[in-house]
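Honest question from a wet-lab person: if I give you the sequences of every part of a complex, can you actually get the arrangement of the whole thing, not just the pieces? Trying it with mine:
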Amino acid sequence: MTIEDIEREIVDEFDLFESWLEKYEYLIELGKDLPLIESSEQTDENLIAGCQSRVWLHAKLAEGLLVFTANSDAIITKGIISLLIRVLSNQNAADVLGAELKFINEIGLTEHLSPTRSNGLVSMVKQMKNYAYTFSNTK
Amino acid sequence: MEVTQIRTDFPLLSRKVHGKPLVYLDNGATTQKPQIVIDAITDYYTEYNSNIHRGVHHLSQLATEKYEGARKTIQQFIGAQFSHEIIFSPGTTSSINLVASSWGRANVSADDEVLISAMEHHSNIVPWQMLCEEKGAKLKVIPMNDNGELIMEQFESLLSSKTKIVAINHISNTLGTINPIEEIIAMAHDKGSLVLIDGAQSIAHMPIDVVSLNADFYVFSGHKLFGPTGVGILYGKEAILNEMPPYQGGGDMIKSVSFEKTTYNELPHKFEAGTPNIVGGIGLGKAIEYINEIGFDFIIEQESQLKNAATNMLESIEGVKIIGQAQQKASVISFTINGFHPLDVGTILDQLGISIRTGHHCTQPIMDFYNIPGTIRASFAFYNTLEDIEKLRAGILTAKTMLS
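Yes, you can. This is the full assembly:
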């Protein structure tokens, strides 16, 4: 599936929720299924700066596609990364770089994009794109 | 006096957040503004906006009168001897930077020592660190015990003839500890050291008398005192302020300027270069008039009731640990919940319309001391109610259920 296809799928899923409660319960569930970073990769080097919760992110190239893994000490943050990974993992670097990620706005998580939230959604996206940039140049 | 009545003075308190009635428990970060402060701001811009201290015209004189009137209100509010000991600044952080830069550079040299405490806000750490780095002086830290109280014996042994200034908060923004500043000031003075008190968290919660405290500098922000943002105060003793070199150069702070030589204006203008936050100063004066009407007797009683109720409520919830258990404590309560990240709890509480703060509260050394990533902090003002505390309790329980 393309990045846009997955984004649409997520937007459709979130449309089913009638209250914020269900939305956050779903995010919390997603957090539990986050593709976890290898413990050997959960290092200070892979720690994303600027998050109130700690977030570790790793990326590798598998058969020409970017594969992300991550972890965080906050469960809602894990849920949000889980969504990002679902959208951006197993995609080629150029597509990741070009992704507009409109779904964040559409599912009502925009408030997490505000710099004041300090949960690092902005930093996470930036770091994922940094990886994409690095890999697109090393090919 | 009825809190329900008082709450109607604050228009923002009746709004909803995420469709739910607002429960505002982030007063340590900033306080809400009463209508009369909001009106004073509007009045300034609609009736007499003009620059102060300069114009012969009517509006300029009106604005100057109001601004200088606010200075006098503030002087009386903190019991200062002279109104020129009240320096307007953009806030607590700027006031501390002014002292560290102006007084510090003139009075601190290599091998001198600056003393701060283990529970300072970053704004009362970094300016002194910068000064010490520049001068080759030493920054020493008064340690605290597990309850979050300063260890006074250690303070005594850290004090010496090398100590040039002790910079310490009156109330810790993270732990709520009320520090024994009378004792600290007396002990420091005995060794010939000056004392700067960071009053950011105390100014709205207890009466301050800088003369009886004998503080050399007392600094605070307007916005934590129901006034506008972007305005704060540096109180300093006249003799010390007079000796200090100017901080920033510009208009209003000069007596005469030529390309060869500039002579500086007198206090307080020497430290107020450029057009100040005129409306901020006037708004702050109005906020103080409002507080004077409410009175500290009422504020102290109300906040002490809120503190006790919130403490009991939090202690009744399984897994909650209160960070900061000082004997002398203000209505600022930090806590953690075992197994839950503060940010997760804060996010759920926000969805319930409850504004609390999470994180390190600009006091990373305190987080390191307790070895925690952050806390959840509820900080109260006199307009909070027992109902707010009940909603916080319900919110925490909801968060725990959802996050488990």
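Two things worth pointing out. Chain B is about 40% helix and 15% strand. Chain B touches chain A through 14 residues (CB under 8 Å).
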